[in-house]
Amino acid sequence: MRTQRYWVGHRTVNSVGARLAFSPVTLNTALAAVSGLVSLAFGLATLDRWTRRRRPHELAWTVAMALFFVAAMSLWWAEARGWSASSFRMFFAFGAVINVPWLALGTVYLLAGRRAGDAVMRVLLVFSGFALGAVVMAPVSGVIEPDVLPTGKEHFGALPRVLAAVGSSVPAVVIFAGAAWSAWRVVRGANPALTSAAVRNVTSAGRLALGNILIAAGAAILSASGTFAGRLGADTSFAVTLSGGISVLFAGFLVASNATSPHRAPQRSE
To answer: Model confidence over 75-113: pLDDT tens digits?
Structure first.
């Protein structure tokens, strides 16, 4: 049997037949881990609120954060162990296609009410299942280099790329526009909801406006990875925008959540 030697930190070890690939901590792996930890904390916070209050937008955000966590851990694993077809499919499906739509669903529930949110959720369930199956079954062309971030245009056909374009651009516009519109309405002294079915009691207009501004900024950061790719490199730009965007989104959620209370319909006197 042939004995191979691999670098582990500052030492070398022998392996017989099997590869033991351990990599030192890099900026990209650290940022991916931060993204995963922040999304986990975000998801636990929304899950706790949903179990206590049963508000549908908090359940939608919980699902979105679970998907984001899977995407962040896929990036961490790929940066630490090297990219492969499996890690590329995981990162592409959960990070580029079906993640942001569930985050946008929470915005729909918040601003348009349960009826509109339920209608969007039914469509989103079909889209998510179809998109996940399409990415998992799509053939991967070319050779995936372990130390280079794969891209959809290099390794996937038309269908996964179209799904990624639809799943990232349209929901991002919904999140950004919804947060900006809500902040504008709060500044003008109006209720942030678009319909009476989604009315919320605002306890701090300034805090709610700030929270919505942070949410809009977080959505913009998450969609700006291509802007930084030229200076930071594709891998680092994704890691930076993922960790920065999710952190800003979480901050906006915390600020906005502490500025509203559930709307309660007036009770009739018997």
So the answer is: 899 888 888 899 889 988 998 889 889 989 998 998 888
Domains defined along the chain, listed by start: 26-261 (1.20.1070)
Of 125, 136, 145, the closest CA to residue 60 belongs to: 125
152/66 Cα distance (integer angstroms) = 23
Buried b (16+ CB within 10 A) or exposed e, 158-192: eebbebbeebbeebbebbbebbbbbbebbeeeebb
Summarize pLDDT for 230-252 with one digit per residue, the tens.
Answer: 444 567 777 888 888 889 989 98
pTM higher than 0.85 for the full model?
no
Question: Contact 81/23 with Cβ under 8 angstroms?
Answer: yes
Could you tell me if 98 and 60 are in contact, meaning their C-beta atoms sit under 8 angstroms apart?
Answer: no
Tell me the pLDDT of the chain averaged across its residues.
78
